[in-house]
Amino acid sequence: MGLSVLIVEKNSRHGGKLEQLEWEGYRWDKGPSLFTLPEQVDELFLLFDKNPRDFFNYKKVENSCHYYFNDGSNFLLKGDAETRNEDFIKHFYERDGRAAIDYVQKAEKTYNAIGGLFIDYPKYGLKNLFDKALITKYPMLMSRKVRGSLNALNQDSFENPNLIQLFDRYATYNGSSPFQASGLYSMIAHLEINNGTFFPTNGMRSIVDSLYDLAIAQGVDFAFNEPSIAISQETVGYKTKLSNSTIEAERVVSAIDCVTFYKNVLKNEKLAAKYAAKERSSSAIIFYWAVEKVIPELQLHNILFSSSYEREFNSIFKFGEMPKDPTVYLHVSSVANPKDAPTNGQNWFLMINTPAGVVPSDEQKKNLRKMIHRLIQEKFSVDISQAVLHEKVWDAAGIEADTGSFMGALYGASSNAKLAALTRHGNTSKKYKNAYFVGGTVHPGGGIPLVLKSAKIVANIIEKEK
Ligand SMILES: Cc1cc2nc3c(=O)[nH]c(=O)nc-3n(C[C@H](O)[C@H](O)[C@H](O)COP(=O)(O)OP(=O)(O)OC[C@H]3O[C@@H](n4cnc5c(N)ncnc54)[C@H](O)[C@@H]3O)c2cc1C
């Protein structure tokens, strides 16, 4: 659009949650590990007539996820539709297997029919509830599927409790509980299962590295190490105070958690309190382990399920406590990119969902480590108690300190309430004209694909205004 752009960042470099860690030949992506809709990243390069492949490469993941259930069984969810459908039937038998195939097809239909309405456009408000585009979708939006929880939908769809747990897990993709979030989120299964998952050849970090290179090539300026920016609204535009200068700008785009932005940058306590009052999405504790062993069964993404999802999510969302018997997500990027670990090792990223704002005690961390050792022994008959050469830990407090995420929540407000999609912070503000909001805490939601959608929505709004 020919606008001059300055990005102000409190950290010493770009990337936010897409940071990485390195130690003696091991590399870990610190935050996101699951990459869907990669064409959205490509689109940014195409916008500037660049070949995305000159900057950024990725490949489709052959096996989406290896699920290990509490009853000792496991299921490898494959990327290829034909073998995946055969596996559904082989593993879960005729009735449930066919139900799973049907479920995934329906998820695609729902996504195609209404997904775009919510993620490609600014948030629907009261004034456009009667827009024609929306009215025609009311029967679908009012269906039992949407009014009930994701778990209720999955209970109705399947008999096998493992299959219910597998499809319940999609609520965690926006940090919510399957027992509260709407059945509409079954759409997420379509994105992962039908569209497939991808992995950048140089790790998740290369997404932001390549976008940084693109931004520099387009003349975007960056001001790093600017933690205490203060922005004030002027008659026209905004004044931004940095440590050594003041900048006047026509427009301001916040990519920070909206609560943190109101509180620390705009200093509007009232709006900060309003958005802070909404229930947070889950946070997490992540252990980054340099493991001096190779477990060949491990895929890029592995889930070691808890014995009861209901107990686990009640702990997180009802009682605000660390779950006693949590699900463990084990991501091993060296499976896709052998450069991420020495040949005799694997770089383990072990993530456990926790309530936002809750930091596990040293005792709880010790118990979690023991529990992981036990699970690995049970599932793979491998003793790793002496094989962890190095460890780093990230928790709700660390996530908040490093990225400004209020209470360390991964995706801003949770999507547990039925109308959560309509009550999320929008991409603009009534009070702050020419201020725009992008990122995981605002419409349309958290996670890389939705965050990129928020950026596109804002770019379209600014283009129209111009
Ligand atoms: C552990 C973890 C796992 C995740 N897994 C996935 C996944 O598998 N797939 C997926 O798609 N998404 C995942 N996500 C979510 C994903 O990381 C985010 O949605 C995405 O990276 C965008 O993040 P964000 O909008 O929250 O902004 P951030 O990346 O947090 O960026 C905000 C930026 O603002 C800066 N900032 C904050 N306060 C100030 C201030 N006062 N002044 C200046 N700068 C400031 C921060 O330093 C940061 O750089 C995960 C997140 C975490 C933490």
List the helices and strands and how they pair.
Elements: E1 6-8, E2 20-23, E3 26-29, H1 39-46, E4 58-60, E5 63-68, E6 74-78, H2 81-119, H3 132-135, H4 138-141, H5 144-147, H6 150-157, H7 161-168, H8 187-195, E7 198-200, H9 205-217, E8 221-223, E9 230-233, E10 238-241, E11 246-249, E12 252-254, H10 258-265, H11 269-276, E13 283-291, E14 301-304, H12 309-318, E15 328-332, E16 346-354, H13 362-380, E17 388-394, H14 396-403, H15 420-423, E18 435-437, H16 448-465
Parallel strand pairs: 1-8, 5-14, 12-18
Antiparallel strand pairs: 2-3, 4-7, 5-6, 9-10, 10-11, 13-16, 13-17, 14-15, 15-16
Helix pairs in contact: 2-8, 6-7, 10-11
Bound molecules: flavin-adenine dinucleotide.
Describe it.
- The chain is an alpha+beta fold.
- The chain contains 16 helices and 18 strands.
- The strands form 6 sheets. Strands 6-5-14-15-16-13-17 form a 7-stranded mixed beta sheet.
- A hairpin with a 4-residue loop joins strand 10 (238-241) and strand 11.
- The longest helix has 39 residues, at 81-119.
- The protein is globular, with a radius of gyration of 22 Å.
- The termini are close together.
- The structure holds flavin-adenine dinucleotide.
- The site of flavin-adenine dinucleotide has 32 residues, from helix 10, strand 13, helix 14 and helix 16.
- Flavin-adenine dinucleotide is lined by residues 8-11, 16-18, 31-34, 226-227, 229, 255-256, 260, 264-265, 284, 286, 399, 403-405, 410, 439-440, 446-448, 451.
